[in-house]
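User: If you would, consider this record:
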Amino acid sequence: MTAPLRLAAYAIDCPDPRGLAEFYGRLLGWGIDEDQSDESWVELASPEGGVPIAFQADPDFEPPTWPGRERPQMAHLDVRVESLSGGHERALAAGATELPQPSDRLDANFRVYSDPAGHPFCLCAC
C-alpha cells in the first residue's frame, strides 16, 4: 500500500505574487513564508498550520469576468466570517472590491468580492 497523497498548496496565478499575497495576508491575518517564496512564487502560511495559499507569477494573466462568462472563474476562495458587515469592512480595508451579488441570492449568507488581481472570492457568514 502506498502512502496517501497530501495537498502541498493551493496556487493562484496572478501578475504580482507578492502584492496578492500581501492582500490575502491582510485579509486573513496570515504571514508570508519567506523561506518558501521568491519573485515568482510566494506562499502565505496560516498561523494555525495546514495547507498554504501560493501565488504564482503569470505575466499573461487575465482575470475572470465574473459575473459574465467571457473568462469564467475556474475556482474561488470562500472565507468564513462571523458577520458579513464586519467581514465587508475588513475586505475593503485590505483592498478588495465589492462585486454584484447574484440577483437570485440577495438574501444569501455570502457576499462576493474581487481581490486586487481580479479573482472573485466570497465572504461567508458562519
Remarks:
- The chain has two domains: 9-59, 66-126.
- The two ends are 39 Å apart (CA to CA).
- The mean pLDDT is 95.
